[in-house]
Amino acid sequence: MSKPEFGPSSLITRRGLVAGLGLVLAGCGSTLTERTTALPPSATSPPNADAATAATATEAASSVGAQPTVTPPPAAVEPTTVPATAPNPTPSPDSTIADLPTGIEPTRIVIAAIGVDAPIIRLDIRGEPEVPEDFADVGWYHQTRLPGEIGPAVVAGHIDSQSGPAVFYRLNELTNGDEITVSDSTSESRTFAVTSSGQYSKDALPAEVFGFGGPNPELRLITCGGTFDAESGHYRDNFVVYASEV
Amino acid sequence: MKRPLIAACISLALLGTLLAQPAAAVHEGAVYTGTLSELNGSGATGNAKITVSQDGETMAVVINGRNLNLDGPHAMHLHGKVDGDTVAASTCPTMAEDADGDGIVTVVEGAVKYGSVQVSLTTEGDTSGDSALDVPRYPAGTTINYNRSGIDIPDVLKPNLSKLHVVVHGVDENGNGTLDMDQTERSSLTDDLPREGTAPALCGTLTVQATAPIQTGAGGTADATSDGSLAFGLGLAAIAGVALSIRRRDEQA
C-alpha cells in the first residue's frame, strides 16, 4: 500500500500536519466559503443541445382538422374556441401524503460487510460537487432524497487518501443483498440492500446514477474507480453501488 | 494560540451550517432531469431538464416528447404533493391507478400519485395553476420541443424541485390521432374537455443531477504500474509540502 517514495516517517509527518492544519484551514475555509462562492459556469450552462431548435413547439399544431373547435391556434391567437376552464384543478389528492414513506436526515452509515461505520456529513451537489474533506467521512448530497423517501438518496465517500485506503476503499467488494444502514441523530434508521453496481467514466456518468429508478426508497453510494490519472490527481472512473430499502 | 482558533472555526462552521439550513439556499443553479414514460398507451417517450437561475427565482424548462399518439394540444405541468410548506416525495402513476377500471388513468386518478398542478408549462404568459387548462397556450402535435426560461418558481417548490413530476397530458383513445371534442367520456376535471384531452400521456419524476465529476479519491492506493507518472506526481507533492497537500485536498480530493 505505501509507496517507496514515502518513508513511514514522512507519511506520519505529512498526515499529522495535514490533519492539524486541515481542521483550521481546509475544514473551516470550505464550510464558510464553498457554500457562498458563486457556482462555476458549468452549473449555469443553458439546457442541452436537444433544445436548440425547440423554441415554440407550435410547429406540429396543424392537423387537428376534423375538430376545428380545438385546433390549437398559433401562440399569438386568442383562446376563443377552446375553453380555458377550471382554474387550478386541485382534486385534493394530497390527502394520501400521510401514506408516503418518510426519510431521515442521515448522520451515520454502517456497512458491516466491508467494515464501514462512519459519520455522514451534508454535501452540496451544485457546481463542482462537494466531497468529504475527512477521508473517513461519507457525505450525503442534500439535494437528493432523504434516505427512506421514495427515490434515490445519494452519498459519496473517498476510495483513498494520498497515503492509503479511505472509507469506501472496499465498496467494490459488496455483493447483492449486502445490507447498508443509515441512521439519524436520534438513531432512527433505514436499511437498504445492494441490488447492483456499476463503473463509469467520469466523462460520461450516466443520468441513471442520480436518476429516478422506481417507486422505492433507494440509496446509491459513489466512490472512485478505474485507473488514477496522476496528472489531474483524480481517478478516471466512478464506482457506484445501488441499493433498495428492505 | 491554536485552541481559540479552532473554537472560532468550529463556531463559524456551525454558524455556516445553520445558515445553510434555510430552504431557499439549496437550489440556486441546480439542474434537475427526468425521463418521461408513457401512460394510457400513448406510446410516447420523452425527457425533461430544469435549470434553476443563479438567483433561484426562475427556472428554464426543456421538455422533449416523441411519438405522442395525439396530434393535438398537450397541457403540461409540474405536479407535486404539497402539504403546507413541505413537498412529499412521490411517484408517477401506473395503470394500477385506474380506480374505476375504465382503462384510462385520468388526470384525477393519476393525481393520487403525482399530486396537483404546481406549475403550468405554458408557451407564453402565466405559468401558475390558473393556466392549468388554458389549452391554446400549450404545445401541440405528436412531437414536443418545449424550451422556456424565466418561469417563476413558487417559494414552496424552491427547495423541492427534485420531488416534482413532469406530466404531459393528451392521449388518443380511439386511434384517429386527433382530439375528439365530442367524446362521450369527459375530462375528470371539466366537462368542457373530452377525457382524452387531459388524460396523462407522459410522466417523469425529477431528480437533481451532478454537473461536474465527483472526485472521491486521491490516489494513495492506486497501482503505480497502471500509470507511470504516479510516483513522480506523488513525489512532487511531497516535495512541495504541506501547503500544496492541503490545497490539493481542498480542490481535488
For the structure shown, list the relevant keywords.
heterodimer; A: 246 residues; mainly beta; Sortase, Chain: A; 2 domains; eight-stranded mixed β-barrel; 8 strands; disordered N terminus; B: 253 residues; alpha+beta; Immunoglobulin-like; disordered C terminus
Taken from the alpha-carbon principal axes, the silhouette of chain B is: globular
For this structure, what is the CATH homologous superfamily of the largest domain in chain B? Superoxide dismutase, copper/zinc binding domain
CATH superfamily heading of the largest domain in chain A: Sortase
Based on the coordinates given, report the CATH architecture of the largest domain in chain B: Sandwich
Structure description:
The complex is a heterodimer of chains A (246) and B (253). Chain A has one helix at residues 8-33; strands spanning 108-111, 116-123, 138-141, 151-157, 179-183, 189-201, 217-229, 234-245. Chain A has 246 residues and is mostly beta strands. Chain A folds into 2 domains: 1-32; 102-245, Sortase (Sortase, Chain: A), CATH 2.40.260.10. Chain A has an 8-stranded mixed beta barrel. In chain A, strand 7 and strand 8 form a beta hairpin. Chain A is globular, with a radius of gyration of 24 Å. Chain B contains 5 helices and 12 strands. Chain B has helices spanning 2-20, 107-114, 195-198, 230-240, 242-252; strands at residues 31-38, 45-52, 58-66, 72-73, 76-83, 86-88, 116-120, 140-141, 144-152, 165-169, 200-205, 207-208. In chain B, the strands form 2 sheets. In chain B, strands 1, 2, 3, 5, 6, 7, 9, 10, 11 and 12 form a 10-stranded antiparallel sheet that branches. Chain B has a two-stranded antiparallel sheet with strand order 4-8. Chain B is globular and about 70 Å long. The interface between A and B is large, with 131 and 119 residues.
